[in-house]
Amino acid sequence: MEYKSFLIKYGEIGVKGKNRYKFEDALIKQIRIALRKVDGTFAVEKQHGRIYVEAEGQYDYEDTIEALKRVFGIVAICPEIRSEDRSFDAIREQCVSFMRESTGGEKKTFKVFTRRIDKTYPGTSETISADLGAALLDACPNLTVNVREPEVSLHVEIRNEGVSIYSLSIPGPGGMPVGTNGRALLLLSGGIDSPVAGYMIAKRGVLVEAVYFHAPPYTSERAKQKVVDLAKILARYAGPVNLHIIDFTDIQLYIYEQCPHEELTIIMRRYMMRIAERIAGHTGSQALITGESVGQVASQTVESLVCTNEVCTLPVFRPLIGMDKQEIIERAEQIGSYETSIEPYEDCCTIFVAKHPVTKPEPKRIRKSEEKLSEKIDALVDTALETQERVLVEPD
Ligand code: ATP
Ligand code: MG
């Protein structure tokens, strides 16, 4: 079966009026971005609450499906046959050749589902389905009708512009198109969790940008490249990701020098959040995203989360908060980030980690420790922000 066109189904529940146009336009934009990486030229257009992708000339079918399967907002991808001739005879012939070709003569049960989007088209959906069903039984001896559990559901949609025929419905990722729900800044490390957190928030339609804190020479170029690679994987779904790379070395060393070592991790995390908020302030991000999950490590006890959160004024989205590591790993595998996340390049936190970090930090005490940083920390934070590296990470 050779398809030239795809009918894109998307979730409409709760998306009405003006929001619906915003949703559809954002979805079309994201589909176009996703198809940029696919061999072929495509037209993407909207008609009567449907979006159509049409290949102009030669194109790669598998890659097209793969790309569309990653566009948030798409509920199903239906490869279709389109024709402009809406006469019943033409529709019948199209259905017969479609069923002949797609079943290859194999025995199959089927049912016809007709949708008259053009309500002036003669007949009712039921009578058209019945007439097409009868014609198919006549023309194709391998077919029998099963209205309860058909093996092939043949869909016929009659619009003003023409007719669509399809039977396949390939599930999309669901969610909302990126760009329909504001913007947030992801704290992206080289670990398993944060890419999954970014994916989950992007899936809700949020435009995601990212920040990575590195500590050269304690962390290598390779560790940084790993984060860029993770951003690339995220970009397959979330669209191009603006990545801010912050040199955190001097800040970490200064904290190491001035503060109790068992408080190092928590104080470092508070500075990461503070710097992330400053970046968000510059770029218009309205929230932060982290890969934190309650109880996973010492810095993620409830007390630690409270203590980290204390320095934030923006909301912090923690989509993994109630997930087990195993569940997160499964998501990472599905997304395709797991293999990259487990590459053995060191994270900036592991270098300065104390043997016995505090697991129940008291905010009052941490604030007191941070006072020891007052001499230089503001200047160090300013320098870190001024010398940040910015990379626009495109999907590979
Ligand atoms: P991950 O697997 O995402 O690295 P983790 O289990 O290693 O998480 P932590 O090291 O405590 O947990 O980090 C918690 C969260 O803080 C991360 O999910 C990430 O959002 C953020 N984070 C940690 N280190 C960095 C870093 N070097 N750069 C940017 N964000 C970071
Ligand atoms: Mg980590």
Features:
396 residues, alpha/beta, Alpha-Beta Plaits, THUMP fold, Rossmann fold, 3 domains, 9-stranded mixed β-sheet, 6-stranded mixed β-sheet, 14 helices, 15 strands, elongated, binds adenosine-5'-triphosphate, binds magnesium ion
Q: Briefly, what is this?
A:
It contains 14 helices and 15 strands.
3D architecture notes:
There is one protein chain. The strands form two sheets. Strands 1, 2, 3, 4, 5, 6, 7, 8 and 9 form a nine-stranded mixed β-sheet that branches. Strands 14-13-10-11-12-15 form a six-stranded mixed β-sheet, sandwiched between helices. It has 14 helices and 15 strands. 41% of the residues lie in helices and 21% in strands. It has helices at residues 17-35, 61-68, 88-103, 125-139, 193-202, 221-238, 249-258, 264-283, 302-309, 325-335, 338-341, 348-351, 363-371, 377-386; strands at residues 5-10, 41-47, 50-56, 74-83, 108-116, 143-145, 152-158, 163-166, 170-171, 183-187, 207-214, 241-247, 287-289, 316-317, 389-393. It has three domains: 1-83 and 165-177, Alpha-Beta Plaits (2-Layer Sandwich); 85-160, THUMP superfamily (THUMP fold, 2-Layer Sandwich); 183-393, HUPs (Rossmann fold), CATH 3.40.50.620. 39% of the residues are buried. The protein is an alpha/beta fold. Magnesium ion (MG) binds at residues 189, 191, 347.
SSE order = EHEEHEHEHEEEEEHEHEHHEHEHHHHHE
Give me the oligomer status.
Answer: single chain
What percent of residues are in strands? Answer: 15-25%
Tell how many strands the DSSP assignment holds. Answer: 15
Low-pLDDT stretches:
none
Which CATH first-tier class of the largest domain would you pick? Alpha Beta
Count of spatially separate domains: 3
